[in-house]
Automatic annotation (TrEMBL):
It is a multi-pass membrane protein. One of its GO terms (cellular component) is plasma membrane. The lineage of its organism: Bacteria, Bacillati, Bacillota, Bacilli, Bacillales. PROSITE patterns: HAMP. Its EC number is 2.7.13.3. It is an enzyme of class 2 (transferase). Residues 348-400 form the HAMP domain. The keyword Acetylation does not apply. It comes from Paenibacillus endophyticus. The keyword Transmembrane helix applies. It is found in: Cell membrane. This is Two-component system sensor histidine kinase YesM. The chain crosses the membrane at residues 21-40, 330-351. GO terms for molecular function: phosphorelay sensor kinase activity.
Length: 618
């Protein structure tokens, strides 16, 4: 984790040009590697298919050539049972007379030569009876007793007159010559074809004769060397470009007829893929054998039913891809070099405008705002430079405006200090007037002046937007007293506000404009019995106030003009806006005509004002 964190820090702190170079290099490398890998996989797949097809054709062609030769042997063996001469020789032989046996041997040798003598690939051919082995014994000799006790004889009997092919076997072990098992023979590894000869004869009269029951049916034995069977595969392997090619022929039981490794010939070495191959007869299989993937192309021989195959490692099949791998590596290196050059050129092109802006920012940092970067192009960097120049000019303008604003603030501060003297001067003046009224026994005037001075002092001392409802009602009562002195016996005011609301914060003087409107506009024409009722209560959601009078009232058209702002009014819009700012848009002021002809003002406020709006007014 520490190493990854260091690498991340290095990447974060690297220059933009380095980041651009590295990212472009990695991107190009990734694309080339992916394309190279995909191309290699596709090429390998196609090459493997071609190799399978090629090997399959070789196996099929070799099988066809072998089938032609072996089918010739089968065809010739089909002629022997109806050979009249062979029938007479066998029936006329006296097995107890050696001279007769020798004479029969010469005649049968001539007969066998007539059928098989012209085929140089046949190693030896015999007709074996329980008493004698007839045929050419110059190259090999088969003892009748050993043959009759061998698996060759049993399979010939099981064939019931059909030619049976015997996979490769060892001469001494198969024919019971145990004393000769340690010796080496030219014919030690043979493949044979055996057939029970059901001899027949047709005489001159056309009468069909079969072999008498007293004479055992002879067995034809044709021997082939493994060189004969595997010569075509050996020639292909010798001239093949594959270094680790192997081949073989096996029967369905796994007995090895031929194999490129001679040590495996005449042994039972069942391949792991044999069962699958036996079901398909011909084709190609890819398996993992001894930890290595290999390709096996196989085909079944029509004449014998054996399966011949060629096996090569996948690595050998793809050996031509080594050149492709080298060329791909060279191409990758060239592309990476080109990508580095292009990335460097692109980074210079991209970072040059950024470098200009960086230098300009350093000059701005030193206080020099009279900078203009040359604008080139309409791309993103051109737009960025134009924006920077505009921003620089705007900053210069704002600095000048800020300087002028500070001068104005100084002037405003001096003016505010001067204005602070005015309320103090006015309060002192009202106090002087109060004492003059007291000295002249003008009690009513002195109380009016005293209330007005208190109202002025309360307003100037409290500089917040809100104050407690208790303070607002106290200020309102002083105002009502002054107005009652002017309109003596014209109206009276009743205030009924819940005690728990007296300490809540309310907008300053929010009731005064409505009381003033009720006195001046609603009750001005009354001579007596004017009434103004102020109520205040709350529920769990909001606080409610009403100011109701029994004056002349307002018609609906006038109220609508007041609400829409068509009628010039200051008090109601001012209070309404302040309440909405303090509590929210769902609160505010509404006006309705009263049932008795007057006017009712409804005020809705929240329980708690927003603190962001409760700022001190300076």
């Amino acid at each position: 984790m520490r190493i990854l964190r260091k690498m991340a820090d290095m990447a974060a702190n690297a220059k933009f040009r380095i980041k651009l170079l590295v990212s472009y290099f990695l991107l190009v490398s990734f694309i080339i590697l992916i394309l190279g890998f995909a191309y290699y996989q596709i090429s390998a797949k196609n090459m493997l298919l071609n190799v399978k097809e090629s090997l399959g054709n070789v196996v099929i062609n070799n099988n066809q050539l072998l089938d032609e030769k072996l089918q010739s042997i089968r065809d010739k063996s089909e002629m022997l049972p109806i050979d009249n001469e062979l029938y007479r020789v066998i029936t006329e032989t006296d097995v107890t007379d050696n001279a007769s046996l020798l004479k029969t041997d010469r005649k049968i040798t001539q007969i066998l030569f007539k059928y098989f003598g012209g085929d140089m690939d046949i190693y030896a051919s015999f007709i074996v009876t329980p008493s004698y082995n007839f045929g050419n014994t110059a190259r090999m000799f088969v003892m009748p007793d050993g043959f009759m006790a061998s698996s060759l004889y049993r399979k010939s009997i099981e064939g019931k007159g059909n030619l049976v092919w015997i996979p490769t076997y060892r001469y001494a072990e198969t024919l019971g010559e145990k004393d000769m098992s340690s010796l080496k023979f030219e014919f030690n590894k043979l493949a044979s074809a055996v057939k029970q000869l059901k001899l027949t004869f047709v005489d001159e009269k056309g009468i069909f004769h079969s072999l008498p029951d007293t004479i055992p049916e002879p067995i034809l034995m044709v021997n082939l060397t493994t060189d004969y069977i595997g010569r075509l595969f050996a020639d292909y392997a010798q001239h093949s470009e594959y270094r680790h090619l192997s081949y073989g022929i096996v029967d369905d039981g796994g007995a090895v007829v031929i194999h490129s490794d001679e040590a495996l010939i005449a042994k039972h070495n069942r391949p792991v893929w044999l069962e699958e191959a036996a079901d398909r007869n011909n084709g190609s299989i890819q398996k993992v054998i001894d930890g290595k993937p290999v390709v096996i192309s196989f085909s079944r021989m029509e004449s014998t039913g054996w399966i011949s195959y060629i096996e090569i490692p996948v690595e050998d099949a793809l050996q031509d891809l080594n050149a492709l791998r080298r060329y791909s590596t060279l191409f990758l290196i060239i592309m990476l070099i080109v990508s580095i050059i292009l990335a460097y050129a692109m980074s210079v092109f991209i970072t040059k405008p950024i470098s200009r802006m960086k230098k300009a920012m350093k000059l701005m940092e030193r206080g020099n705002f009279h900078i203009h970067i040359p604008e080139h192009g309409r791309d993103e960097f051109g737009h960025l430079i134009r924006t920077f120049n505009h921003m620089n000019g705007r900053i210069e303008t704002l600095i000048e405006e800020n300087y002028a604003s500070r001068l104005r603030e100084k002037e405003a501060e001096l003016m505010a200090l001067n204005l602070q003297l005015n309320p103090h001067f006015l309060y002192n003046t009202l106090t002087t007037l109060y004492w003059i009224a007291v000295e002249n026994n003008q009690q009513e005037m002195s109380l009016i002046i005293h209330n007005l001075a208190d109202m002025l002092q309360t307003s100037t001392r409290n500089k917040k937007e809100t104050w407690p409802l208790r303070t607002d009602l106290d200020w309102l009562n002083k105002y009502i007293y002054i107005m009652s002195s002017r309109f003596e016996n014209v109206f009276h005011v009743q205030i009924d506000v819940a005690a728990e609301l007296l300490d809540m914060e309310v907008p300053k003087l929010f009731l005064q404009p409505f009381v003033e409107n009720a006195i001046i506009h609603g009750l001005a024409e009354k001579e007596q019995d004017g009434a103004i009722v102020i109520n205040g209560w709350s529920d769990s959601l909001m606080v409610y106030f009403t100011v109701e009078d029994n004056g002349c009232g307002m018609d609906k058209a006038l109220i609508d003009q007041l609400k829409t702002g068509k009628m010039n009014s200051t008090g109601m819009p001012n209070v309404d806006k302040r309440i909405k700012l303090l509590y929210g848009s769902e609160y505010g002021v509404d006006i309705h005509p009263s049932e008795d002809g007057g006017t009712t003002v409804h005020i809705r406020m929240g329980l708690i004002a927003s603190r962001r709006d409760m700022v001190e007014i300076k």
